[in-house]
Amino acid sequence: MTIPPPQRLRFGRAARLKRGADFSRLRQAGERQVSGCLIANWQRRPAEAASRLGVITGSRIGGAVVRNRARRLLREAFRLHQHDLATPVDLVLVARASITGKGFAEVERDYLAALRKAGLLSPARRPNA
Fold it and tell me: What is the DSSP string of 15-59?
């Protein structure tokens, strides 16, 4: 039995949502799931496309340092689990005020719970979190 090569866990420019029109499209036409410290808005993409992520952190969360930490935590959760998605999606994660003071394990747990509730995780690769 051969072991498959590990998948690259990159989060490059092609994996980012940058245009305001994309964020608006997901908010209006996409689906929504709330879980703990985040809100996930998503829309499925064609099978040959790659998943993309956008992160929103409002000023209600706190100052620049707090907002940047929240963005880093959410991006890292996506980066580590991007290959666990059943189908490619455009995903926007909105940080809620409760993300303040949380560690990565708690944010990751909320992220995976949102994906699980939404049915976006691949059944063969469901992480135990």
Answer: GB---HHHHHHHHHHSEEEEETTEEEEEEE--TTSPPEEEEE--T
Let me know the angle formed at the C-alpha of 71 by 16 and 116, rounded to the nearest 5 degrees: 75
Give the three-state DSSP class for 90: strand
Is the Cβ–Cβ distance between 114 and 33 less than 8 Å?
A: yes
pTM (two decimals): 0.86
User: How sure is the predictor about 4, in pLDDT bands with cuts at 50, 70 and 90?
Assistant: low
Question: Side-chain half-sphere of 111: how many Cα atoms within 13 Å?
Answer: 30
Give the count of domains, the chain: 1
**Is 124 inside any structural domain?**
no
Structural domain of 32: 15-118
Please report, for the domain that includes residue 108, its CATH number: 3.30.230.10
Over residues 19-44, the mean pLDDT reads: 93
Mean pLDDT of 10-36: 89
Q: What pLDDT was estimated at residue 9? A: 74
Q: State how far Cα 11 lies from the chain centre.
A: 11
